[in-house]
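hiii, so i know i said id send this last week but things got crazy w the move. better late than never?? heres the sequnce for the chain we talked about at the cafe, plus the structure i predicted for it. fair warning i was half asleep when i ran it
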Amino acid sequence: MRTRRVRAAALAVPVALALSACSGSADREAGGGPSPSPSAVTEESAGPVSEELRGIASASAEAEESAAFSSQRPSPGPKAVRDAFAGLQATLNDSCSTPGNCEYLLNRVVDELIGLDAAMKADGKGPGHFPEPIEWIAAMRDRIGEDRSYEHLKSHQDLILGTRDRIDVWMQDHPDDYR
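okay and structure toks below
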């Protein structure tokens, strides 16, 4: 609730300044003088309310700035098994028909399998509920290692796509885990 008031107040300050500038500048322009700067208008029209609004806006700006530079951003946890499996299924109709597409596909399937592995291990049912898929992904990761070059992944194409397909079949037999 406080955040809404702070943001509303922060938005009100520029509106008040603009309205104040418009009414003050019309009078000055009619007299032939230059239009005042926004800071001059603020100083001229400063009353108890505008001082309070400026303080709120300043606090809001400081809070947003410190949040923007904070290195302690919370990281999202693993996806739900349902969402991770949907990402893996999205690769089923893709193929390695061209080298560029094949490189993309193999990297994506590996990424999706790693994400599914994390989701299964973090699931409320526990990793013991998904023993085969976790085992298959671990075996694939052991064989592939850390090398994500296209040539290396291409040499393990059957293993990568085979792991994806085995997990797809396993999940089809466990619809309560992804629906």
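btw The chain has a mean pLDDT of 74. thought thatd interest u
miss u guys!!
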